[in-house]
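Translate sequence into structure tokens.
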Amino acid sequence: MRAAAQDEDERTRPRGRWRMLPWAIVALWVAVIAIAGPSAGRLGDVQVNRAVDYLPASADSTQVAEIQDTLPGGESTDLVLVYHRDGGLTAADRATAARQTAGVAGAHTLTAPPRAVPSEDGTTLMYPVSTTEPGQDDEARTAFVDDVRERVKGDGGLDVEVGGPGALNVDAQKVYGSLGGPLLYTTVAVVAILLILIYRSPLLWLVPLVVAGVADALSMAVVHGLNRGFDVTVTGQSSAVMTILVFGAGTDYALLLVSRYREELTRVARPHEAMAAALRGCGPAVVASSATVAAGLLCLLAADLTSSRGMGPIAAVGVLCALLAMLTLLPAVLVLLGRRVFWPLVPVYGSEPKRRRSLFAAMGGSAGRRPVAVLVTGGVLLGALSLGAFNLPGDLKQEDSFTSRPDSVAAMTTLADAYPGRSSQPITVLAPTDRAGAALAKARTTEGVASAERGRSGGGWTELSVVAEARPESAGERDTIHALREGLDGSHVGGPGAQQMDLETASSRDLGIVVPLVLLSVLLILIVLLRSLVAPLLLVAAVVAVWGAALGIGGLLFEPVLGLEGTDPGLPLLTFVFLVALGVDYGIFLMHRVREEARRGAEPTEAALTALRTTGGVIASAGLVLAATFAVLTNMPLTSLVEMGFVIAVGVLLDTFLVRTYLVTSASVALQRKMWWPGALSRPPAAPAPREPELVGTP
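Result follows.
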């Protein structure tokens, strides 16, 4: 027995350089993270989350913000102090308001003394407050708003709220700044629970999770470097999506690799040789799929919106860092831990895998019996769900952009009710100083304008503060902004309402440019990978149908069920890019195996059903993990993230359990070899040449 044990040790022990290679890879990663760690920790310092930071540089409202930075004092912080009592303000309330606003004016340098604007019904006092004291420093601006909120407080039924664009921006930045910790912890917890259920091992689940965490740290450091070296815009939204992609896509790659590694361990004695075989088997598909995802995401560089343009390389960095970690660090750690990492379900060399009744074999069989009927039914279902997109709520307003209502949004609601004929959110006009007088007169006579006042001047520009009659972000305010832009030649019109209009315009433009670019780039990559034209067209059509259906489900649920009052303008574009890229990702996994079976000589039906039976389980697990990680966004306090997480999670589930299982498999069965046209696999194998009869007895 001792001799047998020694033989087993000799058979499984790594030889020569293989013994040190895993240790060298781990040591290299430790060094990389030690160097990258400080940069990763500073990523939050370079995030920008103001509405104007999302807009293209050419937008009129962006020009206003940039010119304001050059005026005396720099960018202004505009607040509105709101005092409200339901039954009507008392004399004591008015005295309190006067005392507190005077305290604010005494503690800070304001552009003008606070002046009370009473509502007609006597329930509300509004004090516009503006200062250039914080300048462009976000921390100083936050400190100013916090100090004002500390100084103005109500009691005894008197409600005091601090609103206005400055307060709204500070509240938004606080929400984005608070996302990092909860998002990371929730994502890790969700992935950990799913991996424990999938692997049923007390140790194995921890390995890909730790490796994903290392990849996340590396991606944050790389993105910080992109920001410092190439001025790539980093927002709270793009940082959140990058973390989701690192853990979601990285865990998907780990599931595929570990599944193949477990399979090879039953055929190969030494773990390092089994890992090499696993990497040769699934590595090309993983690399190809991640490259396709990254290429699709990089198409966002063509977007006009600064936030979307920055999202492309940031998300691509997350995917590529996850790929790098899962194909280097994960294999090294698994080899070092050996077979025992799979305990208690340790794969034994020479054993046969247990034959279990496969759910995916049964599903594939049902799709294979009536492929055309399954295709038609699935297509009709996806088309019907897509109609729900017409029920999506209108464009998202600032007051509806939070799932829980901060103080600034509460102030906007109070002002809208108390001042129905006056906007509480000024429109900012920047006019050339030599024409400022004429511009002011023209603004005052523009339809829909309640008042207009002259402000600061500097650098050849003069600031005009225009108050519209209509409430903020209403159709009336939009008409007023349009009229000002058309009537004030040579001037720029900005402010929160104008920024929202420019955001919607840029989003529509980006949708028309980026969508065709993504489709074309993904299609070309698939044609090269699959050596076919029909299969890539089918996969692309399938993921587009999934996107439409997921968006339609969102339209059916957002407002009636989830209570979301608007749709983020960037939702269609971002969800399209992610669902097409990630959906094609799974398509590559499946079709790579179909192609592999076909090259071995399997008939088209057999190849499709075998591929589904062998890869269906791991693709389903990967889809569940990816959907769950994006579903984490639905628990965030921002409506845009909730909507994005919901649509992508639903789309991934549709793609995993309907399109990959039924529609692609049915199409493969129905089209047979035409699936691979015009490639070599579309042609029947050549019949073997008949053997010439042997001439027996010939001298």
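Note: The CA atoms of residues 195 and 205 lie 5 Å apart.
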